[in-house]
Amino acid sequence: TDQAVAGARPGSEVWFAIRPEKVRISLEAPTPGSSNVVEGTVWDIGYLGDFTMIRVMLGGEGGQLVKVALANRTRRLARPFAWDDKVWLSWDVEAGVVLPP
């Protein structure tokens, strides 16, 4: 994102907004040096018909909750993730927007 547009300067506090469907989730650790990757724990899983919403806790108990939306492409419900799984979230650079606080 363009930091000048968001009014951010290096070292300043900002908010980052991203749609849940733009976030990738994996049980596999990313390759070293990967960017836009955070580690968390699956906190909640909700089946909502066309998609599954997974809430991931970053930073342990009392941390930030992040939502990830996964499309359900078949009628069979695959459950690749379970509560308390350690997972990694990642996203493309252009997938979100930086906002001033």
Structure in words:
- By secondary structure, the chain is mainly beta.
- 4% of the residues lie in helices and 43% in strands.
- It is built from 1 helix and 7 strands; from the N terminus they run αβββββββ.
- The strands form 2 sheets. Strands 2-6-3-4-5 form a 5-stranded antiparallel sheet, with no helix packed on it. It has a two-stranded antiparallel sheet with strand order 1-7.
- β3 and β4 form a beta hairpin.
Helices and strands in order:
Blueprint: H1 3-6, E1 15-18, E2 24-26, E3 37-47, E4 51-58, E5 64-71, E6 86-90, E7 96-99
Antiparallel strand pairs: 1-7, 2-6, 3-4, 3-6, 4-5
Cα-based radius of gyration, to the nearest Å? 15 Å
Q: Note the overall shape.
A: globular
Q: In what order do the strands lie side by side in the largest sheet?
A: 2-6-3-4-5
N-to-C series of helices and strands: HEEEEEEE
Query: Which percent band covers the strand fraction?
Result: 35-45%
Largest sheet: number of strands, sense, barrel closure: 5 strands, antiparallel
Counting H and I runs of at least 4 residues, what is the number of helices? 1
